[in-house]
Amino acid sequence: GGTSAGIPRETGFDITAASEVMAILCLSDDFEDLKNRLGNIFIGYTFDKKPIYARDLHAHGAMAALLKDAIKPNLVQTLEGNPAIIHGGPFANIAQGTNSIIATRMGLTLSDYVVTEAGFGFDLGAEKFFDIKCVKAGLKPSAVVMVATVRALKYHGGAKLDQLKEPNLEALKKGVANLEKQVENMKKFNICPVVAINKFITDTDEEIAFLAEKCKELDVPMEVAEVWAKGGEGAENLARLVAKVAEQCTCSMKPLYDWEWSVEKKIETIAKELYGAAAIDYTAEAKSDLKKVMDLGLDKLPVCIAKTQKSLSDNPKLLGRPKDFVVTVRQIEIASGAGFIIPITGSIMRMPGLPDIPAAEKIDIDNNGKITGLF
Fold this sequence. Notes:
Blueprint lengths: L19 H8 L3 H9 L2 E4 L5 E3 L6 H7 L7 E4 L5 E4 L14 H10 L11 H16 L6 E5 L1 H7 L12 H20 L4 E6 L6 H13 L4 E4 L1 H4 L5 H13 L14 H13 L3 E4 L1 H12 L30 E10 L4 E6 L18 E2 L5 E2 L3
Parallel strand pairs: 5-6, 6-7, 8-9
Antiparallel strand pairs: 1-2, 3-4, 9-10, 11-12
């Protein structure tokens, strides 16, 4: 210890998909914006408690140079020869969960319709897509499609993971409450909604018919997509429906919150409006982090809540549509370069652990140099 031997500190790791550099890449407009955002990465403090950013270390130029090619979107094709732009890989449970602004804008200049994904549940990827990406980039979506599966809704209805392929209308009827809440969430953003049922061969006609009737009750257009079995052909009717809804929609997207609100109000609005929480609890560490955010003048940034994807709550065991639960914010990370702050809730980790048996244990090489265990 001691200053001559360096300053002891606690730190940790984030998986690449949750790293601030990934978020910066996805939210940058161009090279200049990329450099500015990299320079805005908060590093720490001087001995007299003045904040230090990457630009103070003169590191942002070299960092941007490393990303010279990475900032360019990748044009690929599907198995059926359709164009797709792949760019960025942030997870929606522990990051903002949407592809790059540059890729989306590129798509908008090249085609009549652009479909982009926001990962995991609507309460995660879609919320961040609207409240962070769309607001920052000035994007105005014409429609929103929520993908649901019979097996996921049966899981929310109490069916065991190894029984999801079995017909179980009762579990589906219980689990559909999750779909009802997510449809409510879709309408909160004032965008024309569509529900797509991603059908698998194990889904029964009775289960599909039940969901069709439920969507009718909820007054939301629904179409079954059979891409799992039929590829692109299985989504043609869905594509026609989405195009029709997008063309006829006269709504204008309304964010869930204003960036100028206090951090607490932004978190509370998301947790209560979208998750259905009754209250928010802040640990002592989170309160200390919140003070740091205020002292650095970063409280007007949007919030990118890290939360389990397995539940509307921050507890993965609370399935369906839980009510009267408390969301616990255990800490708040700063991503000043990306342009948001990250309230971390429940037990979610931004560096997911290895499985019980890591894949590396199955990988080997023989005397002839042949590698096994990669597949």
